[in-house]
Amino acid sequence: MTTDTTTKDAAPGATAPGETVLDARGVTMRFGGLTAVNNVDLTVNSGEIVGLIGPNGAGKTTFFNCLTGLYIPTEGEVRYKGQVLPPKSFKVTAAGVARTFQNIRLFANMTVLENVLVGRHTRTKEGLWSALLRGPGFHRAERASRERAMELLAFVGLDAKAEHLARNLPYGEQRKLEIARALASEPGLLLLDEPTAGMNPQETRATEELVFAIRDKGIAVLVIEHDMRFIFNLCDRVAVLVQGEKLVEGDSATVQGDERVVAAYLGEPFEDAPGSEEIAEVEAAEAQAAATDSAPGKENDR
CB under 8 Å to 35, separation ≥6 — which residues? Predict the structure, then answer.
């Protein structure tokens, strides 16, 4: 499938054609003596949609967390437009990298519009005193943020539901809202973690078109997904993670024709592959790290 790749309506965070947006080198993540991601290299260039696939437990989401400051890699570095990303998630967002999550993370009791406005906070220049005094500058900034938020809701097809509570949206529209909120930070790179999980074929097709539209605005995209048809229709390149290591990377035909990829998805063991108990230990360590990261008080440390 091909689409128009011009960027005449480029987003504010859009990147110049041919620019390397993401450059991850030797990224390794260990939990104690367990290695969840091992020496992974990956680049994403402007104008590209890159897919990241692999069996369950391959380390895909852990790798995403290393890219976005939720985890600090044990080894390696992550650069965005040539600059090493800081090890804080809010600073990564401010730098120009936004993401969605495998499990939708919306503010359920806030409106659709308010959720997108939350995503605008990294691009709002007004400080504490301006907010307290509510002077002309504050009102101009607030008006501009609302206008931009409504533009993004129109872009994803949710402008008519701006005043609805997020929790009342159907599942597929909640996914769209999470993408709109990510786009509100004006990223140059958008990371999508299983954006079509739980969707029916019509919703999946709509998501595919939305991702193409995001790319056409000059925003590079890196996406994790288990739906192989979606990935191979969508992506310019696909990288395969198996047991925390990058097995192969290339276009759809290259990846689909690689016997090692087929074997990995069929569950055939590799030399020195960890057993089920070791894999379970890695998954338990990741869950513990996630629980610690979301504990009360941790949000203020980021």
Answer: 28, 29, 244, 282
- The encoded tokens of residue 300 equal 């203020």
Contact indicator for 184, 13 with CB cutoff of 8 Å:
no
How far apart, in Å, are the Cα atoms of 57 and each of 134, 161, 280?
Answer: 49, 37, 9
Q: pLDDT by residue (tens digit) across 26-53?
A: 999 999 888 999 999 999 999 999 999 9
**By the 8 A CB rule, do 147 and 116 touch?**
no
Q: What is the dihedral of CA 165, 168, 211, 260, to 10 degrees?
A: 130
Q: What residue type is 246 in one-letter code?
A: K
For 108, 166, 175, 212, 218, the CA distances from 178, given in Å and listed in that order, are: 11, 10, 5, 17, 19
C-alpha 241/C-alpha 209 separation (Å) is: 25
Q: Does residue 5 sit in helix, strand or coil?
A: coil
pLDDT by residue (tens digit) across 262-278?
888 766 655 555 555 65
> Cβ contacts of residue 196 below 8 Å, gap of 6+?
175, 203, 204, 207, 225, 227, 230
